[in-house]
Amino acid sequence: MSGVIIVGGGQGGYQAAASLRTEGYEGPITIFSEEPHIPYQRPPLSKAFVLGKQEGDRLLLRLEAYYTERNIELLLGERVQSIDRASSTVQLASGASRTYDWLVLATGATNRKLPVKGAELDGVCYLRTLDEAKALKARLEAAQNVVVIGGGFIGLEIAATSRILGKQVTVLESLPRLMARVVAPVLSDYFLQSHSEKGVDVRLAAGCTEILGKTKATGVALPDGGVLPADLVVVGIGVVPNVDLAREAGLTISNGIAADEFLKTSDEKIFAIGDCVEYPNPFAGGRVRLESVQNAVDQAVAVARTIMGRPAPYSAVPWFWSDQFDIRLQMAGLSTGFDRTVLRGTMESHKFSVFYFAGPKLVGVDSVNRPADHLGARKLLGAQKTLTPEQAAAKNDRHEIYEVLGSMGLGFKQRTAKARTRAAAD
Ligand code: FAD
Question: What does the H/E/C string look like for 362-379?
């Protein structure tokens, strides 16, 4: 028995190995990770890690002993160079090769590079890996003027973190609103206001034409001829999925490694999970590639079950979170295609949810500092139930959602508000 080979020791790769063992797989499991670190969490990198609140072992998904105790072979600093599908073998950069019964590709994604002159200067940073986070943290300590290019989740989280550390921060977003591809205008406006109130200079429909400096970044040139002083430039303009390995092996590629509803690629023995895979998602009403912890984790669980002979089409409710200053944004479902939004709660209270409807159907809920709404939304969407827009907007918002869920047989167990908050944060 050759066992399961997992390419990538990130969120999805770790979870695939862990879930195979909990699902009862007894054969060999090997994780090849090109990074030199024991699998760690990426979400804190833009938040608690840079603030010095979560470092070392507290970043790890599991301590090293976890892998040893479960007989999971974790090979760090080992890049898989190619796949020979005919012989079910992977070749490593180190020259060795290994055969597999099943191959799980969890190769993640790489940051999109800033396509302007000067982008290679010292002081222009990206954030994906722990090593990049360490470099960014060190530079941030010394920096005065930080320019963040990109007003998406990562850019805004770094902007918030830099501001908390007392830096002068400017965000340049090329679109007319923040997080435009994923949230409703009302939320873009709320985050613009929140960042502005905390002293972040957010510039919309704004670009940069060049990073200035000789060897080190000193400024950012703007299209109108202006210059922003900058001793640190952080680029957060999206990612591209890591598909080269799969492409060179002849697997079908679309906006990611193409897979079916079981996360199986165009090769029967090869699965793809996490940020690198495009697959049919019932909540998207089509094929989609998602970048979230939930997506990587739940897909890994699904693949482990398929390998164990218990296949089921992957259909978990997508969810996501982002922390910026004291705002926790939690998203459930996929709001693309919505034609109406309903606000529950008030923005002034900094506790509200936006319910997205496509016709009469609830397709997504974005909650700001309202974890109970988020949990309720995940339950509703998972059970393929909907609220009416009137129920969503109910004034008696504290309890109404539970009554509605209860009437649908989806009630929460009696838990304290504190326990619900803790569960939503997990
Ligand atoms: P990754 O975790 O990226 O792991 C892929 C691994 O595969 C990498 O280590 C890579 O080096 C390795 N690899 C690639 N090719 C090879 C090869 N050929 N051989 C060996 N190894 C290889 N999501 C949320 O839901 N909430 C958040 O708040 C949030 N915050 C984030 C903050 C930051 C700064 C970042 C970077 C991401 C954040 N995310 C967040 C996204 C989330 O971390 C990712 O969606 C998740 O890590 C995807 O898991 P993955 O296993 O697909 O990829």
Answer: EEEEEEECCHHHHHHHHH
